[in-house]
Amino acid sequence: MWGPWATLGFGALIGVAFIILQSLTILVFLALTGDLSLAELADPEGAGLLASNGLLLVVATLVTAPVIVALIVLFAWARRGLPVLDYLGWRALSRADWMRWLALTLLFVVIMDGVTWLSGRSLIPDFLRETYTTAGVTPLFWLAVAVAAPLSEELFFRGFIFRGLSESRLGPWGAIVFAALVWR
């Protein structure tokens, strides 16, 4: 058992690992592709070009996500007392629950896309269109943005951080409010 400070400390270590891995990936990517020099990267316009580079997004996500997931699992295992999957909130859903959540998700997407369309905005943001067209390997793009990134994010925030803080004096509601205020 550990308290909220251990959760936040291990969470900070995971965050630092994420930043270091992303930074190293960008540097190696730039060295191998020659897309931008470090001087161009320091320029806001150059950094903007890099931010919408789909291939870099794919590579950085697929390099970083497995390491982050491994660290989350390692720290959850080190906590002891609960099996890792229980600590991270991974429970099997019944078929009825799957169907209910799928229906609610589809309804939400239809409503939000309808609101976006009625407001005259594009359903696909320019950033997503640009990263998709520059990704190079479409299946790896979808693996990165639809599997790897959401998996690592959900395990970190809604698994590791939420569970650790919800067992403190904050309780579940305090953990939700804390996470919403800090990571908004």
From TrEMBL:
GO MF term list: endopeptidase activity
Coiled coil spans: none
UniProt keyword list: Membrane, Transmembrane, Transmembrane helix
Sequence intervals crossing the membrane: 12-34, 54-77, 98-120, 140-161
UniProt-listed Pfam families: Rce1-like (PF02517)
Superkingdom as given in the UniProt entry: Bacteria
The keyword Coiled coil belongs to this UniProt entry's keyword annotation: no
The name this protein goes by in its record: CAAX prenyl protease 2/Lysostaphin resistance protein A-like domain-containing protein
Native source organism of the sequence: Candidatus Muproteobacteria bacterium RBG_16_64_10
